[in-house]
Description:
Elements: H1 7-23, E1 27-30, H2 34-42, E2 50-53, H3 57-67, H4 73-81, H5 84-93, E3 95-99, E4 104-106, E5 114-120, E6 123-128, E7 134-140, E8 144-146, H6 148-153, E9 160-163, E10 167-173, H7 174-183, H8 185-213
Helix pairs in contact: 4-5, 7-8
Amino acid sequence: MVTGIDSSAMHSFTQIKRAADELGARLVLVNLSPELRESFRNRKLIADDVILADGEKEVIATHLAESGTAASLRDWLTQALGSAEYAEQLFQLCERLEVGKDTTIAEQGDPAHSMHFILEGRIGIIVKMDDGRMIRVRSLGPHTTIGEMGLITRQKRSATIKAEVPSVLYELNADAYERLKRENGALAQALLTYIVRVMAERLSFASKVIGVLRR
């Protein structure tokens, strides 16, 4: 079910391949998409001793059937904000967006005028380097936010945001956020607390990635 792979994950696979070679073990890669297969080939991680398996599709399909559809935005926000009332109030300020694969939601360098709650799908974060290269630094799945720091600080977008698969998002624009701060301080504080918690989790993730890259 993996839709993409970033540089830190590929580095981890390189280490796994090296450890497997030392042990005389073989890697079995299951259900690689054409894009992932190409990424592994470019890193020379697919060779005669790496098996491309096609199993597990029925297991995944069964699991998805049992798990049901994604939780509604209200349910998610109730858990995130600690209040069904806050969740309903924030829901009323958001606009639903349905985007297709490869749709650009925001461009690096543009003014940050909104944040997005990802309900379904997967969103890639892509950074344009000084030499013109485009590097996907991370993907974000359902039940998290994107663009929140730009909305709060009003700085320009530090990365391009693009849908990797068909996705459903809810957008909180700058005007709605300013109205929220003026008219509902308690909800604004609850939202800010949630954003701080999300940012702390991402900083922890980034620290772990840096630790892996230094090995």
